[in-house]
Design goal:
The complex is a heterodimer of chains A (794) and B (300). Chain A is α/β, with parallel strands linked by helices. Helix content of chain A is 27%, strand content 29%. In chain A, the strands form nine sheets. Chain A has an eight-stranded mixed β-sheet, sandwiched between helices. Chain B has two domains: 32 residues, no CATH class; 220 residues, Rossmann fold. In chain B, helix 7 packs parallel to helix 9. Classes of the chains: A alpha/beta (794), B alpha/beta (300). At the A-B interface, strand 2 and helix 2 of A face strand 8, strand 9 and helix 9 of B. Strand 2 of chain A pairs parallel with strand 8 of chain B, so a sheet runs across the interface.
Amino acid sequence: MQFVFQPLAWGFLLVLVPLLIHLINLVRHRRTPWAAMEFLLESYRKNRRWVWLKQALLIASRMLAMALLVAMLAQWITGSKWLSGFGRTTTHHYVILDDSASMGDTANGKSAYQTALGSIAAIANAANQGSQQHLLSIFRASRGALAANRVVESADAPTATEANSTNEVRADAIADLLARTIPADATGLLSKINSTTPTQLECSFDETLAAVAPLLQSDQSDRAIVYLMSDFRTKDWNNATILKQRLQSLRRDPVEIQLVDCVENRHENLTLAAIEPRQEVLAAGVPTMINVTVVNHGAAPVRNVAVRVQAIDYSRKDGEPKPAESYSGVVTELPPLLLDRIEPGESVTRNVQVVFPKSGSHVITAELPPDAISADNTGRCVLDLVDGVRVLLVDGDPGGKHSFFFESALNPGGNARTGLLIAREGPEYLRDTDAEGLDPYACIVLQSVPSLDPRALANLHRYVSRGGGLAIWFGDNLTANDYLRNYAALAKPISGLADTSPLIPFGLMGPVDLPKDPTDGTPDIIADNHPIFAPLLGLSSSPFQFVRIQRYVEIEPRDTNDKRWKPVATLRNKKPLMVDYSLGDGRVLIALTSLDRRWSNWPQDPTFVVAALKMVGYLSSFRTTETSKLVGSGLRWDFSAQEMLPETQLICPAPTGRNIRPALQINGETIGENGLRANLEIRPDSDSEDIVRALTTAGLFEWWGTAVQGDSIVKNLARNTPPAEGNTERITATDLSNALNGVKYTYRPAGSVGSNLALSGMSNRNLMLMAILLLLLVAEQWLAWSASYHLPKR
Amino acid sequence: MPDSKNYLHPEAIRRIASMELRARNIVEGFLSGMHRSPYFGQSVEFVQHRQYVPGDDLRHIDWKVWGRQDRLYIKQYEEDTNLRCTLLVDGSASMSYGRGPLTKFDYAATIAACIAYLSLRQQDSVGLTVFDQQVRTKLPWRSSRNHLQAIFKALQQATPADKTDLTKVFREINDTYPKRSLMVIASDFLGSEKESLRGLASLRKAGHDILVFHILDDDELDFPFNDPTRFEGVETIDHLTCNPRALREGYLESLQRFLDRVRHACASSKIDYQLIRTSKHVDAALTAYLSARMAHMRKR
């Protein structure tokens, strides 16, 4: 049973009062000596059953009267059609509010989100004008999406019980209002939702509808109306298969679905779609190219767009958190990017070159001029620069003749800085070090290392599995038998590890001469679309025109169709020359040739320098963190307990209209032996509004910690608005009808919401209850009279 | 001048502790209200003279003999009294009930005292028996004024107790008072109904004229209880916890049937029957008594 004033339902305990009074009266009787017992007992014997029956009926009628009185006061809500025919009907309004970033679409000083809030107020006002009972539930789509993400994350819970307990998003956990009666003055009721602003998430109604569906099924009200208040963008509604299924699954009768359009027209909007470094190797003193991509989501071309670019330097050792300022770091205004013209639907990418002389955390921000949707106008990325990226060259030749080409390519010397720190070691280094000893290296290049100790193999395997990058170049001057004997260990499963996958996932046939047949002009190397060769592709002619491959190592034919690896470059004869192999979290890049001049002249070709640098960047990219993520991604910082104190402070972006940035105190939790993890997440037991706001807001998050020596340490995390949210293209009514084919709905502009609320039903359920109560009281009086509880007048 | 009837009200009677004063007040008040001489029907049938002895009533001295012979002689008549009156007062436990000024026993004792006073004042001889399931106090017929004190004392000392067994008691009374007399019985007859009526009939067959005062309390006649009550039998171990209002109608019906049976039994045996409420004036009882006495005298 549901009641409008649910706490008053405790009043049902009052039904016990008549029974208690009856029992107390029986206990509190007085004693009277009586002579004429004979006649009294005769009367008792004669009337006993009838008297008992009347008393039972009397008590029951009084209890029922009490129950009716409480039901009347608590405003009983029932789904019974029979009762609804007699009494006042109850309408439950379920408002599901799209609070994605696109709802910030503003025109004439009023955003789509504010229009939606106005529609909710209109519903409340219309409800107050009638005599019907109205209940209001409000959900924000972002809450459902966030809760669903948490459920998905917790599905990996260690125990089945824990996973089951969080397997569903509960409507009451995400509701801003749940089944609240609309008072005469709804201002207070709506104050909380009116104080909210659109998030900068990209979210759909799917998760929230899934949470609301069970609520609708158990709803006892006579009528249910589901309002989906949105801006109806094409990207959200054109292929809304899941949404359609959710709407069709609302198995409650009657339920009305009203699609409320909160935007009148499509507005011009530019979106800063991406801001990211172009290269993988980021080091202090090395020029870094930052790509900035802007998309025109409007219907008309735009001209002369100036993109403001700022660099924020957090490398100072004496830096400290400054919540009152926009950034705690030192802000440097860079020359703006000027975009001449962007056609509708087109994107333009420009790059900015920045050089940070000192290692540490740096941030680049780019900002577009104000337009309809402000959330997508700013983007930022975090560059955690190091003094140099360490690369380990392991050369099978004690003289290091094979490393020469790589050293020359990766560290040319002079004024040219690549940001790479080259170290050269012999094969025995891999054996003598431990797995952690290889971790400082961004990537390892093996050159002409024909045989490796099992311990060295295990160390390399662990290194790659944990995200390291390994390049294998074969050696020269080896016979087929040597290959089969020496390199066989690399191609065999490695024992003693959980994952025994070999470092080379295929068998080797030995060196083979590439036939000389250049008649058709086909270059010896044919590069695939891979990051290593990305700068070399797209040219009018092959950059490998002058590269000659004389010998290569052939793969066993039975392994050529293995899906674990893919060729990065092939030879003229379609045989693989370079393959990319995923092992654990890292990658192994296997070059099936040697840099020796008897095998190839590629080291003398300029393309080798590009390929070598890109190869190092590619292989080192699997252990580097992303420079930015989309809003809604978790905020986490793992650090060592030996280096830092567990107490951290997260300074979040300032909310709209405020200058002070809120700070959250987060303590790191122990992970592993010496690890600590500071994690900002929504917990089932503490749904803090600050945490939700932080997880749904784009901007720069400064995470400050304290080193054990007392210095402040900062880790910056960039969260950007999903670019798709800037797409203002709206779905047409026809397309919407096609997308929701089979769903019965009403599509209406926000301004007309509430006007159709039927105000019929002047009869009142409470009046019905009162009539029943009066009848019951009359019956009770008659029963009391009949049971001689009233002395007749003499 | 105060209304003489006020002296007959139970509330006024209750204030007089002495049974003698109570009886005199009632009777004098009663008689003054009647405006008639109490000395009627006195026996005058002369039998013999006997010599005066101290203590004899001087009014009975034959002054003519004294004048002729200078000796004091007393005139003796066939009988000293007009009639014999036997007062039978129920002293069982049920008579102890009463929430008004007087319990049923108090009321019965007062009636008995008044009748004794009235009878002895008319030169009748009066006997008294107080009983419950057996005869507890028994005083023979006497017509002397001193006998009145004995009656008063017996009534004042009696305390209601035990059950009622009228059959046994009336059999014993038949043996105790063999001569025909006017029997005045004051009882609530709450006991074995059949045995009580059988006892009355046996007394009637023995030639006694019987006047029954059926004394019941207002509560017993009206059953005015409202609140939940535990009724505990005074002569039985029965008890009943109930809402009295729910049983009231049945109780009154049952009681009325009982009263009708008693009244009908008395009428069929030509027994004068008078239902007395303890809240009513006692003059009704005295009037009934005088009517019965006159009827008894006429038969003689």
